[in-house]
Amino acid sequence: MSLTKASMIAGVAAFLVFIPVTAQAAATAAPPSNCRDEGVACFYTKKDFKGQICTWEFADPDTFKGDIDCDWMRNGTAPKSIYNNGTSADGSTGIAYYRKTNYGGGRIGCTKNKSGGNVSMGVPRSVQWVWNKCG
Fold first, then answer.
1. Beta strand extents in 30-132 (DSSP E only)
2. Which UniProt keywords apply (predicted)?
């Protein structure tokens, strides 16, 4: 019976060691090769961080004619994937994107710093770094 208890303890210990390693690997996943500049959020025309790219380092109240001229968004193409390579140096925890200019019309999504993935949404008309409001 002590062999069974020892096997169970070893199994539980292995399981507990495995969980933190997995969580850490997901949190530190490398950004796509074309989104390596720290502090930017990258929006792509295709899934899996492919296609044309537009990047934002600062909040932009109008993605069509603001600080960044993202012509494919202006022409009505919605992003299919987003990677946020933002840092928390300024305290922000993510980037939010909105249905209308000037951060209006309701938020259509938010991506936490150092994360990303495929999305299905409309064309964001404004983007803004947020603090503890993502997720």
1. 41-46, 50-56, 81-84, 94-100, 104-112, 115-118, 126-130
2. Signal
Tell me: pLDDT of 119 over 50.
yes
DSSP 9: H
CA dist., res. 8 & res. 10, Å (int): 5
Assign a CATH topology to domain 41-130. Answer: Gamma-B Crystallin; domain 1 (2.60.20)
Task: Quote the CA–CA distance of 49 and 11 in Å, as a whole number.
Answer: 38
Which residues are registered as beta bridge partners of 81? 44, 118
Query: pTM here?
Result: 0.76
Q: Which two tokens stand for residue 61?
A: 């109240």
What separation in angstroms does the CA of 15 have from each of 4, 5, 24, 110?
16, 15, 15, 32
Sequence ranges of the domains in the chain: 1-30, 41-130
Distance CA 24, CA 49 (A): 22
